[in-house]
Design goal:
The protein is α/β, with parallel strands linked by helices and 422 residues long. 45% of the residues lie in helices and 13% in strands. It has helices spanning 3-13, 23-29, 46-63, 74-84, 93-96, 111-125, 143-157, 162-172, 179-189, 194-204, 214-240, 245-266, 278-281, 297-304, 344-350, 365-369, 395-398; strands at residues 35-38, 67-70, 134-137, 272-275, 309-323, 332-336, 356-359, 372-375, 390-393, 401-408.
């Protein structure tokens, strides 16, 4: 690799001036696109969350963004959604985060999101119901929580749909809320609940369209999206036993479908901001994921909505992060070592050890053709195994812009995880 050539290209695409000064230029480039994808290089870094929040505030205020969709579960995020819209009986903000109790709870139950939620609640309080900004989850992990939410709602409001819900629940119940047990039985022994789950989703699909008032419309849409989450989770757990790319692909297709439903719910002029890991929002075709047969959300949206998607990647050189040493392990603050030589992050550091925004409008051939190692940290992290944390990436093809934060710190969790499963 010609380091000098890459460094020259980086300097050419870097906006001049400080990070905050360049926010306006970044926001301007997102004007009119319906899908604004904001990434993160880890699920436990404070600055990724606070910068995304600041950028999202500007998009809400200046460009009329209608909703935020995040890499979180629908039921727990929906409770927070009701809080930011002023629809919870209890006014305590931390109470609104109480459903984020499953590992890794710190992803959304953290001080950084709490502060953003308070800002959004205040913003929504000044708006009529039809102009309030929502906060939603688009992940697939809430099999049992979504099933519980559906039963609770139908028992109270729509008993005509209870038979389908009960059949799905009775099919899933013998597995004792153990995803692995269900996955083994469904994948290896043909004892799955796919038919029952599909019948439930079919029963609840589009009922919100004929609702009498805004509250009913909201509740019916919530029921449909929980049924969609049950369908996605069932397929995900059934496939993950095989340890191939399909479980990943099911998850990201589900996220794309959630976004399509949200766009339909909010109307033809709606626009949304999506918060998820770089591995989801950056185009998989610009990484080695494609060699493994993997797709992702960024790729799916770009393929279906060309010219209507703007993806921003994030990264840093060193600092600290919240993560676990293994799945379900207690979260802890870990040191993020200096980026490896010749990686994307190390080259950004060498180009000037300051925070910066890069815009890939200009054609810089080396950034559009040369794969560079790009760090990705998950909820499980081992700093000593740093080599395995880098994804070969053609950065200017993967993202439309990039936010580089030279040194970052761990975010601040609100609570400890109560339940350790998945």
């Amino acid at each position: 690799m010609d380091r000098k050539q890459v460094l020259q290209a980086i300097r050419k695409v870097t906006l001049q001036g400080g990070l905050q000064d360049n926010l306006s230029q970044l926001v301007e480039r997102m004007d009119k696109v319906r899908y604004v994808l904001l990434g993160e290089a880890s699920h436990g870094t404070s600055e990724y969350y606070t910068f995304r929040a600041e950028l999202t505030k500007r998009l809400i205020q200046q460009q009329g963004i209608r909703f935020i969709a995040v890499e979180g579960d629908w039921p727990s995020c929906y409770r927070l959604n009701r809080y930011v819209k002023g629809r919870l009986d209890k006014e305590d903000a931390k109470e609104a985060f109480s459903d984020f109790n499953r590992w890794p709870a710190w992803m959304w139950a953290n001080q950084e999101i709490l502060e953003f939620a308070e800002w959004l609640r205040h913003y929504n309080a000044e708006k009529p119901t039809e102009e309030q900004v929502g906060f939603f989850g688009m992940d697939v992990y809430s099999l049992w929580e979504s099933m519980d939410a559906i039963l609770t709602y139908l028992q109270a409001e729509a008993p005509d749909s209870l038979p389908e819900a009960k059949r799905a629940f009775e099919c899933l119940e013998p597995f004792g809320r153990n995803e692995q047990s269900y996955g083994v039985s469904a994948a290896l022994y043909g004892e799955g609940c796919e038919d029952e789950v599909l019948a439930l989703l079919y029963r609840l699909t589009d009922r919100w369209m004929t609702a009498g008032d805004e509250e009913d419309r909201d509740s019916l849409f919530n029921a449909e999206m929980n049924a969609m989450a049950v369908k996605g989770a069932e397929a995900y757990y059934r496939s993950m036993i095989r340890h191939n790319a399909e479980s990943w692909n099911i998850r990201d297709r589900h996220m794309a479908n959630v976004l399509e439903n949200l766009m339909e719910y909010y109307g033809p002029q709606a626009r949304g901001v999506i918060w998820a890991h770089n591995t989801h929002i950056g185009d998989a075709r610009a990484t080695d994921m494609i060699e493994e047969g993997m797709i992702n959300l960024g790729q799916l949206l770009r393929e279906k909505h060309p010219g209507d998607v703007y993806a921003v990647g994030f990264g840093s050189y060193e600092g600290t992060v919240i993560a676990g040493k293994e799945w379900g392990a207690p979260s802890e603050v870990m040191q993020v070592p200096q980026a490896m030589a010749d990686s994307w992050e190390e080259l950004l550091h060498q180009s000037g050890a300051d925070d910066k925004i890069l815009i890939f409008d200009n054609r810089e051939e080396v950034l559009e053709t040369k794969p560079l190692g790009h760090r990705a940290i998950g909820v499980v992290y081992h700093p000593a195994w740093e080599q395995g944390n880098y994804v070969p990436t053609v950065v200017a093809k993967r993202y439309d812009a990039f936010v580089y934060l030279n040194r970052t710190k761990a975010l601040s969790p609100l609570m400890e995880e109560k339940t350790l499963y998945l």
